[in-house]
Specification:
32% of the residues lie in helices and 26% in strands. By secondary structure, the chain is of the alpha+beta class. The strands form six sheets. The chain has a five-stranded antiparallel β-sheet with strand order 13-12-11-14-15, sandwiched between helices. Strand 14 and strand 15 (252-259) form a beta hairpin. The radius of gyration is 24 Å and the shape is globular. The structure holds adenosine-5'-diphosphate and magnesium ion. Magnesium ion binds next to loops. The site of adenosine-5'-diphosphate (ADP) has 23 residues, from strand 10, strand 14 and strand 15.
């Protein structure tokens, strides 16, 4: 099948590699810069524009970008949902790009993470600092590449950092320090598999193991429990492609961060695995599955249009009825509610055009 894909990103090296790899599988690959995108939220017509023109129809759209674009990424994917295959639920962008929101959602799935504290005022934050064990970590919820992570080995150090953060009006979280001799692991989840992992060690005395902070990466094979935690993390956040940062201490693995737009250079170099190719191939196969499902649906619609009810009567019913209109709104017959078991608190994908309407329950529900 000939399939088309758009990669919406900031055009980093990792994105270029991914786009090149996608050319092996997809018929057409468009690279779109996130800065050229405009979204008309709740518009009755087109909602996503590229350089002022409605976005083309694609079979797959892969959206990437840094935390600065988290809200835009969520808006784009919300507005395009149901129109093509995308590897992320819209919520994934705002959750993954904020360490506090990540932790709050992972906690619900019992995913182990370091103990983390938050407070509204400096004086209540200092009360936390008085009672916790040192060293302690202080983090900006939206930092990346190790830049928003600070270590304090005493109350005095932590307290002075706190005053500085407060003076800058910078939100922060306080976190338990997990002892791993400055080593962390980056696990790359694609679909329901771990496709690559590396161990990173901070340079010299540097406790941050990020490659951007001078850390060195080497290939690593996590045990099956650690892999399971990483896969569960990706599922919980609604991301089919995710870089999960973890610390493996004597107390077991702890997730510290989720990277929804993971850099590919460091991990490709450390593992020798062609990660861009694995991602491209996965996206292609998922798009194929999505298209097959879609055309299966279409066939059934044609049959029921002809008055032929396909398959089990218990499963699908054709109803001939007049529709009730309340002003501009359409009211469906009560039997439709009974058959579909749709309920008010669920979300739906509505496909509509002239003379045609289809309503489908959304597969991954937003938390
Ligand atoms: N709770 C912690 N205990 C020990 N080291 C930590 C902790 N949190 C972060 N680190 C170190 O700091 C690095 C960066 O933290 P991370 O939460 O991944 O943020 P970033 O978005 O900056 O990568 C980690 O790779 C790890 O080496
Ligand atoms: Mg990290």
């Amino acid at each position: 099948m000939k399939l088309t894909v758009a990669l919406i990103s900031l055009g980093s090296q990792s994105s270029k590699w991914t786009a090149d790899a996608m050319r092996k599988y997809f018929e057409e690959v468009d690279e779109i810069n996130i800065k050229d995108i405009e979204v008309n939220i709740s518009s009755k017509d087109e909602r996503v524009f590229v350089q002022g023109k409605p976005i083309k129809k694609y079979d797959c759209i892969y959206v990437k970008g840094s935390f600065r674009y988290a809200q835009l990424l969520r808006a784009i994917t919300t507005e395009l949902k149901g129109l093509c295959y995308m590897p992320f639920a819209p919520r994934a962008f705002t959750l993954a790009h904020d360490k506090l929101l990540t932790q709050l959602s992972l906690e619900q799935d019992n995913i182990p993470m370091p103990l983390t504290y938050m407070a509204a005022t400096v004086s209540s934050a200092k009360k936390i600092l008085e009672k916790i064990r040192y060293p302690v970590i202080m983090k900006l919820p939206q930092g990346t590449q190790g830049k928003g992570v600070m270590f304090a080995d005493s109350y005095a150090a932590a307290s002075s950092m706190l005053d500085t953060l407060d003076a800058l009006k910078q939100p922060f979280i306080i976190q338990e320090y997990i002892e791993t001799d400055n080593v962390d692991i980056r696990v790359l989840v694609v679909g329901d598999k771990v496709i690559a992992a590396m161990k990173r060690k901070g340079k010299g005395e540097e406790a941050r193991a990020n490659i951007h902070a001078g850390g060195k990466g080497e290939a690593y094979e996590p045990d099956s429990f650690t892999k399971k935690i990483a896969i569960k993390t990706a599922k919980a956040l609604g991301a089919e492609i995710l870089g999960v940062d973890m610390l493996e201490s004597v107390k077991g693995p702890h997730v510290i961060e989720a990277n929804i737009s993971p850099g590919l250079q460091g991990i490709t170099e450390a593992t020798g695995i062609n990660i861009a190719d694995k991602i491209a191939k996965y996206l292609f196969n998922q798009t194929l599955n999505y298209k097959k499902k879609d055309s299966g649906d279409k066939k059934e619609n044609v049959l029921s249009d002809l008055g032929i009810v396909n398959g089990d009567l218990e499963k699908k019913h054709e109803i001939i009825a007049k529709l009730d209109f309340r002003g501009e709104k359409i009211l469906l017959p009560e039997i439709v509610t009974k058959l579909t078991k749709f309920s008010e608190d669920e979300e739906f994908v509505i496909e509509a055009k002239k003379d045609f309407l289809k309503i489908k329950k959304m597969e991954t529900s937003d938390k």
